[in-house]
Amino acid sequence: MNTEIELKLRMKPDELGRLRRHPVLRALRLASARTQKLRNVYFDTADLALRKKRVALRVRHIGQRRIQTLKAPSEGANGAAQHFLEWETAIKGDQPVLAQITDEAARDALPITGVEDLREAFVSDISRSVVPLVLEDSQIELAFDTGEIATGDRRQPVCEAELELKSGRPARLYELALQLHEQVPFTVEYRSKAARGYDLLLDNRPQPLKAGPLELGQDLTAWQGFVAVARHCLQHLRANEDCARLGEDPEGVHQLRVALRRLRAAFSVFAGVLPEEQRLHFVEELRWVQQSLGPARDWDVFIGETLRPVLAGLPQEACLAELLAAANAARVDAYRQVATTLDERRYTRLQLQLDLWLESGAGPAGGEIENPPWIEPLASVAVRVLTARHRKVRKLAKRFAELSTAERHRLRIQAKKARYAAEFFRSLYSRKPAQKYVGRLTTMQDRLGSMNDAVVGRHLVDALAKADGNHVRANAILSGWYAARIDGDIPHAAAIARKITKIRPFWEAD
After folding, report:
1. Which of 283, 364, 389, 418 is the most buried (most CB within 10 A)?
2. Is the confidence at residue 368, as pLDDT, over 60?
3. pLDDT higher than threshold 80 for residue 510
4. Helices (H), 359-404
5. Residue 232: φ, ψ to 5°
6. By CB neighbour count within 10 A (0-12 exposed, 13-18 middle, 19+ buried), where does 72 fall?
7. Rounded CA gap, 48 and 290, in Å?
8. Which DSSP letter does residue 204 get?
């Protein structure tokens, strides 16, 4: 069994050609490139039993040779690099020979025992040119892959470079990628060829995904806790990039922005234990991404939650239909900006830099500082942060009835910050009290967020009216609708504010 660690870099064909001539590669290579034609045939059952277990089984054709490979995800996978457990066996013939898979872990990964139910699922035909490299203490194999993945009459082109760690430190993959990125633009490909093949087979479109559960160990240090939280947020971010880029489902860009907010919140939660220079750099870069995506989300909310419902209730108002057309055009422009941002070199650089930093080991300074703050127990950080954020929410919530519009906005922000901190740390405490606390903060945030959407909506209508001198009547209609909406939300927000002032903090309940 081998553990395969690889970083895939997706790029255009002309950029792949530029990468082949990169001066860094000439300085690092150990030998000349070798080129092979690879035909990879992937197998599964009719009901895709292997895919359900997240394993891939293929037979690779290299001339007359046949190599059977079983891949399963590694539990230690982190960052943009893909980690797999891999079992390879030379076989005779074009069909899988499961009897030659003798490793116990490999047998456990397989959901089947015989080949009788296996059938061809999809194929990749790849021209691969491989260059061995050495970067300080690590050996890396760079593969230039061009070709296609195919199933039936569906095709998907492949044009990527793959950095595979043969020995040494995973951080070197990010270091090398950053060096290459200085001259050649690319984006990181987070899906394996097998994953892309299955998506092609099923004709899957990118779907929005919410963040999964986060489990933190009780014995973690502050730095280890931060790394776990940050990687969890990055996983959420990357899972929604393709859906947001496509722009067909508003939830895609919404989840992308949620992931960014959570990642920024992680830097805020752990601010006291992180080196200020790195923290400020990443916070500023994350703010740039979030601001770039903001207009698309604003138009989605305005169109989906305000304009269309109002138009449905007042179909005779032609001014609303005209406003909807103008808003849809603005939304198209905003989604172009989303795609542009996700394809920008600055965005790719941010992710590679962050992955490299998170791979730095026990702490940011490598133990050079005596008793650095990042070795503080995570549980201590949790209590301190949760207590401070709860106090800020409670202070404003106690006087909710007298809050101004600006103060209600500040309460929404404080509730959001407290909620993110509670979500990060709740696995350290009893489930039900933590779930109740997060639920109440979420309800308050939603109610206050509805009021904030009304404010944003007014600005959007004003912007459209200023652009073409129209939409005066539509603006008047929506102003009345917004006023009624805010009046309806205030009593509910006040009620949840009272509950929050009385709830017992879950970190004090154990």
Report:
1. 418
2. no
3. no
4. 378-398
5. -65, -45
6. buried
7. 37
8. P
